[in-house]
Write a structure and sequence with these properties.
Elements lengths: L27 H11 L12 H4 L46 H10 L8 H9 L2 H11 L6 H13 L7 H6 L9 H10 L27 E2 L5 E2 L4 E2 L5 H4 L8 E2 L21 H9 L22 H16 L15
Antiparallel strand pairs: 1-4, 2-3
Helix pairs in contact: 1-5, 1-6, 3-6, 8-11, 10-11
Length: 335
């Protein structure tokens, strides 16, 4: 349990209060410690990979590469999701296998493809550094450094990485009717359209009356992982965690905030542009036996063909208006 004075994490315009677990209240000391740990490559077995290696501040703490490089240039099969605003997600990873930011922090450390380290190994390495010993004592009191302290610090730091006050926020919540372009406003109206004529985006990428996280944090199969020629999935997604066949090929709905900065898209980074991604949904996803019922089907769209190009362009402009401000602490300590 942190011993310092509890501080308030103030969300920017457009975001709700930050959920904080009772046993890990934010303090200045844990935030500073978590920030240092996030950018420290010594958390990996060979000292070459940090959290920030796959979550770059220039890309809303995501990775512009389709698959991130772990130690010895090992590659995974999923695209690194952004950390900005991850504080609002009650499950972490594309398949939701971690139920908190704290739980998530230990995953990459132990993953043989990513950091390939052990929790005791990290504890020993940090305990051998007098500077870290002092920082952990300031944050948690004197005593042995444990990985629970590491994950609590990293999670607390990540809860400060809130990006809002975007042109959309200023327009929708701030009353500034000039904050978005006419094209973006048209795109917003389409985004909100849940009739049979509309794209129904908001059903999964939620906008609430006082804030918008742009995700319902549920899992849907859109067909991205389905291979029609074989009838199989390249990644079964949520099913591996839930054990339910209905979850085959389903992945967590990502937030659309800062989406213009986080290419490539989808769980496997298979789409490189917003235009390509919007077209995928206009086409009704990829048909498969477990396709989610919320995925719009091509036949549902009653937008006249001669107006579809404009509609898709407007939706892209709207999503570009979701680029928020960079959080003040989204950089290595000392920068």
């Amino acid at each position: 349990m942190p011993i310092g004075k509890v501080v308030e994490i103030k969300p920017p315009l457009g975001l709700p209060p930050v959920p904080v677990p009772p046993d890990n209240p934010p303090t200045a000391e844990t935030i500073a410690l978590g920030r240092k740990l996030f950018f420290d490559k010594r958390l990996s077995a060979d000292g070459t990979v940090a959290c920030s290696s796959c979550h770059d501040p220039k890309y809303a703490m995501s990775d512009p590469n389709r698959f991130s490089s772990g130690i010895q240039d090992r590659k995974g099969t999923r695209n690194a999701p952004p950390v900005f605003n991850a504080a609002y997600l009650f499950t972490q990873f594309w398949d939701g296998r971690a139920m908190s930011l704290e739980h998530q922090a230990r995953g990459p450390v132990q993953n043989p493809i990513e950091m390939a380290h052990s929790l005791p190994g990290v504890e020993r390495r940090l305990a051998a550094d007098p500077k870290y010993v002092a920082l952990f004592a300031q944050a948690f009191g004197p005593g042995r450094i444990t990985f629970e302290m590491v994950e609590k610090s990293i999670a607390t730091y990540e809860r400060t990485l809130l990006s809002g006050n975007s042109p959309f926020d200023r327009y929708y919540y701030g009353g500034d009717k000039k904050a978005m372009s006419p094209a973006a406003i048209r795109g917003l109206n389409l985004f909100l359209d849940i009739t049979l004529d509309g794209p129904n985006c908001v059903s999964c990428h939620r906008i609430e009356p006082n804030y918008a996280t742009f995700t319902e944090v549920r899992f849907h199969n859109t067909g991205v992982a389905f291979v029609p020629s074989t009838g199989a999935f390249t990644d079964i997604g949520r099913e591996k965690i839930s054990g339910h066949q209905k979850d085959r090929g389903a992945f967590k709905v990502p937030t659309l905030r800062n989406i213009a900065l986080t290419s490539p898209y989808m769980h496997n980074g298979s789409m490189t542009t917003l235009e390509e991604t919007v077209q995928f949904y206009f086409d009704g996803g990829r048909a498969n036996p477990h396709l989610s019922g919320v995925v719009p089907h091509a036949g549902v769209h009653n937008i006249p063909r001669d107006k579809q190009a404009q509609a898709k362009a407007d939706l892209v402009e709207f999503m570009k208006a979701l680029t928020g401000e960079t959080p003040p602490l989204a950089s290595p300590p000392g920068e």
